[in-house]
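Moderator note: this is an archived Q&A kept for reference. The question asked for a predicted structure of one protein chain; the sequence and the answer are reproduced below.
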Amino acid sequence: MCILPFETQIKHRTRTIKRNYAIEAKVTFCVRGALSPLLSNLMLDGLDKELEKRGHRFVRYADDCNIYVRSQRAGERVMAGIEKFLAKRLRLKVNKAKSAVAKPSVRKFLGFSFTSGKEPRRRIAPQALDRFKARVRGLTRRTRGQSLAQTVKGLSVYLIGWRGYFGFCQTPSVLRALDEWTRRRLRAIAWKQWKRGRTRFAELRRCGVGRDLAAQTAGSPHGPWRLANSPALTIAMPNRFFASLGLASVGAPPPHNPPNRRIRTRTSGGVGGEEP
């Protein structure tokens, strides 16, 4: 497989005569933003026709192009031929730092990759998963001074948009794992907002946690992230509780049976209750 991201700068030179002096005007088009796909399609239409003429299987979006071949040797041969074609016919230079001949499972295209095996499946590229977690960490910081409901509301906007794009993947187990990780982040927020041991014990008991388990968890020396995965917090804030707050899911659809209780979370102005 050849991946050929092209340098996003096109230069065109013209010469004019003014007062017997040759003036060279250089016009530079920066192929970025909303115009990037349009300008790339105008410039690379010749590449598409050439690839079709040669009988290659390929996919291109803007200036990113994948060409699929049967072997490493064939990929290297196609890479050399395409570089030569772009340089001579279209006067474009291939960005060799981002180009490679490799298996689809170790490359990415528009945030997606493929699993290895006899029947490859679309999967989310590791880089895209890292960006997802970085964004969710920013939206669920425990120092933002927001209630749990406010955090869920802002987070769900991002999750819905992310699911609309990456929900096309064929690895639902990855999406379920991201849902579990996100809910754990939210449980850690609630645990941090309860602050003191007495408050934590009272909240756990009010949410249906047994006395011994609530006392053991409230007196634990472990931090919020460790305890967010504990049995006590899982009982106190099950999946259906977050669904009742409106938390979007990137994997399976949320349940429709909300719990009949309230969870208190601390806001920047005091303590408030959130109706499920």
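Archived answer notes: The first strand starts at residue 2 and ends at 3.
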